[in-house]
């Protein structure tokens, strides 16, 4: 596939991301010989145009809310629209409403993989401040295709979870504080390009799934091993991906997860199920109490005994939930990344 003559800088960020982006792009000149594509985790009803205007006030890069089919040009910044993935193909933007990846849409992993497949060694992946794990697998995709990985120093990040996850799982090329990152990126886009590396076939298939070119069980079977797990978003079968350095899973519908992301989702589902069970037990207790009050003799005594038994179960379950045991004592993981 033909590569663009310029570089592509892809950035993923979540909580604390907008202030970090403002600081970073303020260091980049409008003459930058690279296009900059940004995924910032946003609520579905966010006003993307407002965020683009905010960025534009701090840089001479030309800033846009990404639109499907737009040619990718150096010196331009493209922000993923709320509730849409931002991908690339044939040197154009591809904006889709495909399945969530790692619970996100837009997802940094989806953008990074797409960029890695189509831009290869010309991609520079950047992970900034944020919570949870988005961008970690994406940096691994970029490295496998010959690109470079840059991560904000976790000590410099407002929220260090995303940078820490990337550093823990990927052979990152550069870990730098935000105020030094602009100079580093300018240096990288002016350096000689490494020889082209072959694009792994599994990443090409995953990119095609994200583009909705393919989406069958046959396609996923080519790149993964059937796992005894169900997709938490659609209930379909999950396959364990067998390439790369990150343990990942995906279903043929297109939902994709790192192992950490899948574990977090299962914790949330377990907690929700237990709260439903608690509500059901409370209702059962109330019904038994009413039955006992209307009955007489031994029958009424039996219902009262059943009420006392279910009260004990209710109290144990409530204590379990309120202590955070269903979430393995990690209440911070339940928070929604903010802008």
- H-E string: EHEHEEEEHEHEHEHHHEEEEHH
- Beta-strand percent range: 15-25%
CATH architecture field of the largest domain: 3-Layer(aba) Sandwich
Q: Could you say what the CATH topology of the largest domain is called?
A: Rossmann fold
The radius of gyration is 24 Å
Mean pLDDT: 89
Structurally, the number of domains stands at 3
Q: CATH homologous superfamily of the largest domain, by name?
A: Methylesterase CheB, C-terminal domain
Order of the strands making up the biggest sheet: 3-4-2-1-7-8-9
Number of helical segments with 4 or more residues: 10
Tell me the overall shape. elongated
Low-confidence stretches: 329-339
Can you tag this structure with a few keywords?
seven-stranded parallel beta sheet; 10 helices; 339 residues; 3 domains; 41% helix; alpha/beta; elongated; single chain; four-stranded antiparallel beta sheet; 19% strand; Rossmann fold
Topology diagram in text:
Layout: E1 7-13, H1 17-25, E2 34-40, H2 48-56, E3 62-65, E4 76-79, E5 85-89, E6 92-96, H3 108-119, E7 123-127, H4 136-144, E8 148-152, H5 161-169, E9 174-176, H6 178-190, H7 201-210, H8 217-221, E10 224-230, E11 237-241, E12 248-250, E13 256-258, H9 259-294, H10 297-322
Parallel strand pairs: 1-2, 1-7, 2-4, 3-4, 7-8, 8-9
Antiparallel strand pairs: 5-6, 10-11, 11-12, 12-13
Protein name: protein-glutamate methylesterase
EC number: 3.1.1.61
Keywords: Chemotaxis, Hydrolase
């Amino acid at each position: 596939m033909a590569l663009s003559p310029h570089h592509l800088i892809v950035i993923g960020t979540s909580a604390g991301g907008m202030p970090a982006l403002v600081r970073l792009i303020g260091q980049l000149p409008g003459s930058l010989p690279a296009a900059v594509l940004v995924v910032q985790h946003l609520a579905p009803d966010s006003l993307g145009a407002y965020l683009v205007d905010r960025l534009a006030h701090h840089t001479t890069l030309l800033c846009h809310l990404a639109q499907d089919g737009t040619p990718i040009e150096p010196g331009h910044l493209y922000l993923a629209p709320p509730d849409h993935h931002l991908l690339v193909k044939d040197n154009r933007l591809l904006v889709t409403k495909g399945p969530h990846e790692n619970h996100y849409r837009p997802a940094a992993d989806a953008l990074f993989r797409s960029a890695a497949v189509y831009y290869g060694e010309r991609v520079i992946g950047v992970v900034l401040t944020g919570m949870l794990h988005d961008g970690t697998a994406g940096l691994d995709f970029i490295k496998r295709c010959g690109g470079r990985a840059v991560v904000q120093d976790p000590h410099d990040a407002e929220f260090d979870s995303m940078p820490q996850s990337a550093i823990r799982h990927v052979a990152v090329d550069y870990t730098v504080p935000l105020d030094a990152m602009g100079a580093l990126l300018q240096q990288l886009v002016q350096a000689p390009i490494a020889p082209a590396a072959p694009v792994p076939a599994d990443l090409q298939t995953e990119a095609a799934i994200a583009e909705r070119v393919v989406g069958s069980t046959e396609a996923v079977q080519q790149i993964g091993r059937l796992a005894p797990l169900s997709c938490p978003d659609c209930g379909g079968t999950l396959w364990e991906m067998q390439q790369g350095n990150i343990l990942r899973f995906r279903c043929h519908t297109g939902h994709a997860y790192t192992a950490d992301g899948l574990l977090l989702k299962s914790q949330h589902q377990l907690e929700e199920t237990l709260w439903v069970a608690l509500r059901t037990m409370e209702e059962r207790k109330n019904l038994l109490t009413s039955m006992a009050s209307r009955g007489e003799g031994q029958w009424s005594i039996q219902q009262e005994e059943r009420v006392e038994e279910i009260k004990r179960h209710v109290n144990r379950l409530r204590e379990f939930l309120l202590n955070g045991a269903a979430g393995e004592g990690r209440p911070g993981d339940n928070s929604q990344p903010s802008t």
